[in-house]
Structures are given as structure tokens and as C-alpha cells.
Amino acid sequence: MPLDEGLLHFPAYFDRSEQEALLSDIRSVVSVAPLFVPVMPRTGKQMSVRMTNCGNLGWLTDKERGYRYQSTHPETGRAWPPIPAPLLDLWRDVSSYGQDPEACLINYYDDKASMGLHQDRDEINLGAPVVSVSLGNTCLFRIGGINRNDRTRSIKLESGDVFVLAGASRLRFHGVDRIYPATSTLLKNGGRINLTLRRVNP
Ligand code: MD3
Ligand code: FE
């Protein structure tokens, strides 16, 4: 469903059994690359999401060095595990981009977590699309324009939905306002997982 230029929403792209398979792949990633607490640069404030990555590069943030991509886990020092095959298949299906993603950020939201309005601009390659997968409880996602004060609109993202940001939409402000408890039975302890596939380098 095209919502705006470069903004695509595929409701229920993954069916329940595909979501379960994806979740099992993500649990394997997390067993090697545990979730960590991201910390904002300078202020040292903790984000409410927990995160990890798979792929050649992973996104992270800490107080001293700030937002960046690197090839190793900040606590274990090990390389990130590879991106699971079903996610590479997804990227090839929906991104119309000639190169595979280098990074897959895994964000875990408990039912109280949120993410403030922000732009994604840590990638050298801002021409590549971003592909996102939602698993677990429904969230209220907000998307604005390229200026922080532009009008925003809100969309519910449900388990199995895929969202693609490309072209003119790539630099739009966006965030997650809230998680709706008990809207999915996929995650036994509630919450929501978001997977974000990205190309970082040209
Ligand atoms: C719109 N994650 O990790 S994914 C992030 O649900 C992030 O965890 C949110 O924002 C989440 O940076 C949203 C959907 C998404 C990703 C990238 C975008 C929406 C976007 C880039 C530009 C505009
Ligand atoms: Fe973002």
C-alpha cells in the first residue's frame, strides 16, 4: 500500500508460521549477540528499547562515542551473526535495491517502551531504502516530514507488517509513541520486536 512517495506499508506480509520462524531465527541471533542497553551520546541517558544486530555492520550508541555502525558487539567484542535468510529474501522482494543489506538492527520494546521522533542519518548511503518488520504487540508509529516541526501522522504497525522507506521518505522524522499490550500472542512476555534492514555503504 503506497502511503506517500517512497513510503510503502505491506500489512501482514508474514503469516503466523513465518513470524514464528523469524522469531526463532532472532532468538538464535540474540543468544550469540545479547540485547544491550543503548545510551545517548553526551547525556548518558538510557533508551527504553533494548537492541542488538545481525549482519556485517550493526548500529549502536554509547555516551562516549555516540551513534555509529561497527562490525562487533559492544560487550562481547564478537562479530555480529549473519542476517537470517528470510530477511535477505524480504529485502530482495521489497527494496528494489541492487545490493544486499549490511545491517539488521533488532529493537526490543517492552510494553512500556517508546522511541522519540528522530531522523536516521548515520548511514553513508542515504539513497538506499530501509526495510522494517514488526513482530509481537501492535505499536503506534508516527511519521512526519523532513523538518522536525512538520505535521505528523500516526499508523498502527502490527505483527507481520513490513514497512519500506525509500527515496524522498528516507529522511523523514519518525518514532514509536506506544505499544498496545496484549494485541499479539507471538511473544509470550509481551512487547514488540522491530527489525530494520539497511544498506550503510555505497
Ligand atoms: C521512517 N525504529 O531503529 S522502524 C530505528 O519501530 C527506528 O523500532 C522504529 O526508527 C521501530 O531507527 C521504526 C520503521 C522506520 C525505519 C526507518 C525510517 C521508519 C522510518 C527512516 C525514515 C523514515
Ligand atoms: Fe529510526
From TrEMBL:
Domain (Fe2OG dioxygenase): residue spans on this chain: 100-201
GO molecular function: dioxygenase activity
InterPro entries: Alkb, AlkB-like, AlkB-like_sf, Oxoglu/Fe-dep_dioxygenase_dom
Domain of life: Bacteria
UniProt entry keywords in alphabetical sequence: Dioxygenase, Iron, Metal-binding, Oxidoreductase
Pfam families the record matches: 2OG-FeII_Oxy_2
Essential cofactor(s): Fe(2+)
PANTHER family per record: ALKYLATED DNA REPAIR PROTEIN ALKB-RELATED, NUCLEIC ACID DIOXYGENASE ALKBH1
Name this polypeptide is given: Alpha-ketoglutarate-dependent dioxygenase AlkB
Organism: Peteryoungia desertarenae
